[in-house]
Amino acid sequence: MTMIKTVFATTMILAAVAGTPAAAVTFVTTLGSDASFAPTAGTVIDFNSSVLPSGFTLSGTGYAQVNGDLANAYAEPGFSDGSAYVAVGTGGAATLQSTTGYQSASVFVGSIDTYNSVEVLSASGAVLATFTGADFTANANGDQSQPSTNRRVTFFAEAGETIGGLRFLSSAPAFELDNVVFAIPEPSTWMMMLAGFGLLGQAMRLRRRNVRVVYA
Questions:
Q1: Pick the CATH number of 4-186 from 1.10.10, 2.40.160, 2.60.120, 3.30.200
Q2: d(CA 133, CA 166)
Q3: Which of 37, 46, 124, 182 is 20 to 30 Å from 98 by CA-CA measure?
């Protein structure tokens, strides 16, 4: 299974809870299940290798890409498919950053605790908003199996903002996460893509016009 799978499709959002601690970013959560754990439409980073898509970096300290459980250190997210995931330890931080801005970004968070937190970043790395495990669920008690404490959290940039990255922090063991999805690039990126398609179409039309049929 490759680490990155880019899929172009309309994003479907299954929302269970919404919160708005900061005007620049809002979020919704989806209760844990096999479906909400699975990657959704967009650029998917599943941490099954060290390879990242072009323009993305993963950096920080006190985190690792792991499998399974390790007592008193980390636990596989509920509803996981058994593949690798990221675990952030005590005092650790893992920053997933892109040079492109997106309208939304989501992550599956396992065994949510009050001491887990997420900083939503701009494409330049500025912090747009900060959320804690207590924002994602009313019972942030670290349960490893319940849908309420294993959720997909989807962040949305408000007007005038884009999301370029996510930073995951924890003040105790641990913050477990998997299958991060960045979706809907910023409008300027889409305009460049559309312009490219337009130039390609024009070239194809000119090519057809220049073809001459000669009959013997």
A1: 2.60.120
A2: 14
A3: 37
Pick from 127, 126, 132, 130: nearest CA to 171 = 132
The structural domains of the chain, with segments of one domain joined by +, span 4-186
Beta-strand ranges (E) seen in the chain are: 4-7, 17-22, 25-31, 42-45, 56-66, 85-110, 116-121, 127-132, 151-157, 163-170, 175-185
The DSSP bridge partners found for residue 19 are: 27
Average pLDDT of every residue of the chain: 83
The string of pLDDT tens digits covering residues 42-77 is: 999 999 999 999 999 999 999 999 999 999 999 999
- Please report, to the nearest 10 degrees, the dihedral formed by the alpha carbons of residues 133, 156, 101, 95 taken in order: 0
Around 172, how many Cα atoms within 13 Å sit in the side-chain half-sphere? 9
Cβ within 8 Å of residue 34, ≥6 positions away = 79
